[in-house]
Amino acid sequence: MLVLCCLIYPALVWSAAQIVPGHGQGVQLTHNGRVVGFANVGQKFDRPEYFNSRPSAVNYAADGSGGSNKGPSNPEYLATVHTRVEAFLSQNPTIKRADVPAELVSASGSGLDPHLSPAGAYAQIERVARLRNLPIAQVRALVAAQVEEPLIVFFGPAKVNVLRLNLALDSLQGR
Amino acid sequence: MNTELLGIATIFLATVALAIPLGHYLAAMYRGDRTPTDFLAPLERGLFRVAGINPAKEMSWQQHLLALLTINLVWFFWAMLVLCTQGSLPLNPDGNASMSPDLAFNTAISFLVNCNLQHYSGESGLTYLSQIVVIMFLQFVTAATGLAAAVVVFNALQNRSTEKLGNFYNYFVKSITRLLLPLCVVIGVLLAFNGSPMTLHGKQQLVTLQGDSVAVSRGPVAALVAIKELGTNGGGFFGANSAHPLENPNYFTNAVENVALALIPMPMVFALGFYLKRPRLAYMIFGVMTIGFLALLAPTVYYELHGNPAISSIGISQSLGALEGKEMRFGAAASAYWSITNTVISCGSVNSMHDSFMPLSGMSQLLGMMTNAFYGGCGVGLLNFFAYLIIAVFIAGLMVGRTPEFLGKKIEAREMKIAVIVTLLHPLLILGGTALAAHTYAGNPTEYAGWLANPGFHGFSELLYEFTSSSANNGSGFEGLGDNTPFWNISTGVVLLLSRFLPIIGPVAIAGLLASKKYIPESAGTLRADTATFGVMVLTVIIIVAALAFFPALALGPLAEHFSLY
After folding, report:
1. C-alpha B415: how far from its chain's center?
2. I need a labelling partner for B368 at 20 to 30 A (CA). Which of A173, B34, B240, B554 fits?
3. Range list of H helices, B444-531
4. Does residue A168 belong to the interface with chain B, where contact is any CB pair within 8 Å?
């Protein structure tokens, strides 16, 4: 039984994994010949000239995932959210308070969320365009091209992969 | 209807659509009829020959329980041995250390009882060898144990008087070779194709686009996640479980995993009906379970989609719902749906952090585990439901003034005592454990400050959740609780043992006792167990016994927090 469950079965799945992209190692993305991350694993983007990723309870440590586990009524947590909202508004002065994307002021479950909602990316367009001296329309088109629609159009939320978006941004400027 | 709601409706309908044919298959397979998987028979014969077991030898209910408990004891020592020495064993590319004895005790028991409470984080707490030969191995065999015990009960409920209830090892082995393994291969391959790693290489060091150095943990993830869901185990490869993007890379895998975890508990209900040739009974049970499930699901989805009122008052609109502890690729609705399926079914994997859900969503999760019989775990969910059924039959019998009987067998004092002990054990362990923890904490809040991540009512909910999850053999947590301490490791370990084996022993014993009684043919005066009226009766019993027993505790935790927020 041990042989069956622990040797033959994993071997079957392992051999199937060899024929997919990444060969069972996880899908890696490269930029200028350098591996810059896994497509599925979120990474920290807090520099203002990049589209920022969500706050992370584990600071995007990909070898120790986890969420904040803060309860909805925890005053300390609510103070943190408040600080994040103020910080976002000061970095993105053209955004109205009600339009601050909720995911950019709340931490994800894994601390490694690779995505934003489309609104979360669009809210950062003006800041990124200004700091990179790009026309706003061009950055907006770049984001629009990176929006991943719901599964087979109907199921689940639409989203944007932050790493892919920032890679496209860097490639655009030849960095 | 928006795409998030459409998504969860589709997941539910897909599960039911798969459950009915699979129920037919399970009934045929356990009965020994011809099935498409007969080509695996030589493999099973080989296993039986090596082990020296005669699969045709019929066993009594006492022999069944003896076999079950003996092999469980062997597995426990095996797991303890590996976990305590893993640091110096092979397949440890990240150089992780061996476990402390109390943590190894908790981990070994927690996986042995199909609970998968995790007081460690997979990335740093386990080696690849332990993940495969302890965690994954136990995830297979404990699911099969629950299934085999359920089939023994099926046998006992047939229309005859008998001591012979089939062969435990036969049901056990077939559960693995003809059900768990084939489905796991399919699910594992689907996960691998969608980007879950399946490798023995260690962490990958890299420099991110903006220039930070990170190490990305990997491992043989796809194979483990498949059995984690299918066997209603729930113990993930990584600390963040199925919220981790390598365990659950996209919305499609989320749907696959979410269907997979119901893919045995739900068909088992239908299998009961087809096995006994009483399909109406199965529809009644399925109806009661589904009503209970939807009653817990609806408020959770509602509150999660409407966001946190305390954050709204900061001025944020939260059009996508409450997002703390949730992943953008699933969204609020699919996270809420997952959290309820995983708590009513004693799987306990998470794709979002339950600690950060709205108070009433947290209460629905708690209630799912407190009743622990809406679909329930692999095999054992049905056993819990069986105990409620017996009580409902007894009360209904008293109400109409007849001798209570179920499927042609009289229910007498001995069966009733066992059923009541089994149903009351659950509240006793949960409330007793929580009381002990709350008392300890209140006695010295500074020394135990590391236990709670949240103050006030929510902190109490964290204590309550941990014991509920242990006693329901669920394994999810309000993970803010700092639970890797001797107190938590040992207290929950003991709760786990009691709450796994007594609810298996009890119903099997009742069924064994019923099986040996004389069969009374149905007449006009028989209380029919397969009607909607009786279904309402069972639901009422579940609400009275399970929900009301917990009301005071819920009032102190989630309800109090709800009214402080809204």
Report:
1. 25
2. B240
3. 456-471, 486-515
4. no
Rounded to an integer, what is the distance from CA A16 to the centroid of its chain? 28
B327 and A47 within 8 Å at the Cβ level: the answer is no
Q: Quick one: pLDDT band at residue A28, thresholds 50, 70, 90? A: confident
pLDDT number for residue B181: 86
Comparing CA positions, the residue from B46, B54, B40, B68 lying closest to residue B179 is: B40
Residue B121 is given by DSSP the state -
> Chain centroid to CA B226: how far?
15
| Prediction pTM value | 0.91
Residue A115 · residue A162 · CB < 8 Å: yes
CA atoms in the 13 A half-sphere facing the CB of B507: 29
- Of A30 and B263, the one with more pLDDT: B263
Please, which residues 226-255 of chain B have a Cβ atom closer than 8 Å to chain A? Answer: 226, 238-240, 243-246, 249-252, 254-255
Instruction: Evaluate whether residue A10 is within a structural domain.
Output: no
Higher pLDDT, A78 or A30: A78
CB B410: neighbour CB atoms within 10 A? 14
Nearest to B331 among A4, A67, A157 (CB): A157
pLDDT recorded at residue A69:
80
CB contact at 8 A, B406 and B514: yes
CA distances, B352 to each of B118, B244, B388 (Å): 16, 9, 31
CA distance A30 to A26: 13
Touching check for B322 and chain A: CB below 8 Å? yes
Chain A residues with CB under 8 Å of B198 CB are: 10, 13-14, 16-17, 24
Contacts of B481 (CB under 8 A, 6+ apart): B451, B452, B453, B462, B463, B465, B466, B488
- Min Cα distance A144 → chain B (Å) is 17
- Give pLDDT < 50 ranges for chain B: 1
DSSP classification of residue B198 = B
pLDDT value of position B159: 65
Contact call for A70 and B454, based on CB within 8 A: yes
Helix H or strand E encompassing A28: strand A28-31
Is residue A12 assigned to a domain? no
What pLDDT is recorded for position B297? 92
B257 in contact with chain A, both atoms CB, cutoff 8 A: no
pLDDT for A18 equals: 66
CA distances from B491 to B85, B104, B131 (A): 23, 14, 24
Separation of first and last alpha carbons in chain A: 54
Give me the pLDDT at residue B68, please.
87
Q: Tell me, yes or no, whether A14 lies in a domain.
A: no
Q: What is the pLDDT of residues B281-328, one digit of tens each?
A: 899 999 999 999 999 999 999 999 888 888 888 888 888 888 888 988
Q: Coil, strand, or helix at residue B483?
A: coil
Both structure tokens of B222: 């796809």
- Most A CBs within 10 Å, among B175, B214, B481, B561, to test the A interface: B214
Residue A141 lies in a domain: yes
Looking at the predicted complex, does its ipTM rise above 0.85? yes
Domain extent, residue A38, equals 20-172
pLDDT of amino acid A153: 66
Predicted confidence band at A1 (pLDDT cuts at 50, 70, 90)?
A: low
